[in-house]
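PROTEIN DATA CARD
Card holder: Ribonuclease inhibitor
Chain length: 456
Origin: Agelaius phoeniceus
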Amino acid sequence: MELDIQCEEMSPSRWAELLTTMKSCKTIRLDDCNLSSSNCEDLSSIINTNPSLTELKLNNNELGDEGVEYLCKGLLTPSCSLQKLWLQNCNLTSASCETLRSVLSAQPSLTELHVGDNRLGTAGVKVLCQGMMNPSCKLQKLQLEYCELTADIVEALNAALQSKPSLKELSLSNNTLGDTAVKQLCQGLVEASCNLELLHLENCGITSDSCMEISAVLRNKSSLMDLSVGDNKIGDSGLALLCQGLMHPSCKIQKLWLWDCDLTSASCKDLSRLISTKETLTEISLIDNNLRDSGMEMLCQALKDPKSKLQELWVRECGLTTACCKAVSSALSTNKHLKVLHIGENKLGDAGVELLCEGLMHPNCNIQSLWLGNCDLTAGCCATLATVMATKQCLTELDLSYNPLEDEGIRKICEALKKPSCNVQQLILYDILWSSEVDDELRALEESKPEVKIIS
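Structure generated from the sequence above:
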C-alpha cells in the first residue's frame, strides 16, 4: 500500500485519519505538507510499528533538528526496515548529523539518504561520513546538494568512499568545492572499490583544470552511467579533456549533462564523435551553450550515424535559428531512437518549425516529447503542427509555451487534439494570450478527453 500526498495542509483530524492508514503502508510520501517536529513523533511510532515501511519522503517540511531526532528514534528500533529516507529542505543543521550518523551506523536496511537543501555544513557531513564508515552501513545513494559544503569535506568523503563498496550514487551539486577539491575527490573515486553509477557535480566551481581527473574517473569506473557537470565553466578545452574519458572503450556513460558549461560550436566536433560512436549514450543535455547553427548541424550529422542510440537531446537556448532546421529535420527522419527533443528558446520561427515537421512526419521518426517554447512561432505554423499531432501517434507531449499563437493558432491545435488519431496527452501552453471563448473551448476539450492534460 502506498500513501502519496503533496502540498496539503494537515488539520489534526486529517492527520489522525492518515496515521491509521500509515500503519500498513509500504511507502509514505508527504512532501510540502506543512509538517513539523510534532508530526515526527507520530511518524517515529509508525516506523517502529510498521515493519513493511520501506520508503519515507518528507521533503519541504519544517521538521528541524528536533523532528529528525524523533524520526531517528524509530529508525533505530530493531523492527525498522526503512530503505529510503528523503529529508530535503527540512530546515536541518549540523546538529541533525550526529543523530543520522547513529542510524547509518546501526541500520543496515537504509540504502538511500537524501538530505540536500539543508544547512548541514562541512562539519555536519564529516559526522555523516563517520557513520558511513561503519561496517553495518550499506548506503547506496547519498544526496548532498545545497548543503553548504566546502573543499574541506573531501578528505572525509574519500575516507568514506574507501570503506563503502556499496555506494552507487553521489550527488554534491551546488556546493563550493572548486577544482582542487574535485581533483582530490576524483582521485579518491578512482582508488575506491565502489561501483559508482551516478556522479553529480553541478555548480561546484569546476573549470577545465579538473576535467582531466574527471576524465580519469570515466576511464576507470565502467560502472559510471550518469555524469552531470552542468553550470560549471569548463569551456571547450575542458570538454575536450572529458571526451578523452568518455570515448574510452571502458566508459559506459548513458546520461551526460553539460548545460551552461561555456561550450561553443568548437566543442561540437568532439560531441558529434561521442554521439555517433558511444552506443551506450542515450541522453545529453547541452542547454544554454552557444552552439549556434554550425554546431547543431554537426550534432545532427552524428545523429544520422547508425551507431547513434541517443534517445534524448536537450539543446534549449543554444543560439539556434531557422538555418539549422533542415539538418534537424534530416536527423529526425533518419534516427529511429530519438524520443525527446528540447529545442525551445531558439529563434526557429514558423519557417524552421515547418522544416522540423517534415522530419517529424517521416516514418522513421519516433519522437514522443517535443519542446518548442519561446521559438518565435505564430499561428502560421500551427496547421502543420496540427497535422503532426493528428498523424504521429508516438507524440504524447508538446510544449508551445511563450509563443504568440493567439486564438487562431490555439484553435488549430485544439482541432488536432479532438481527433481520435491524436495521442498527445500533455500540452503545455504557458504565457499565451487567448480569448475567453477559446478558454471555454480548452476546458470543454479537457472534459471530453480526460486523458489530455492542458497546462497553462
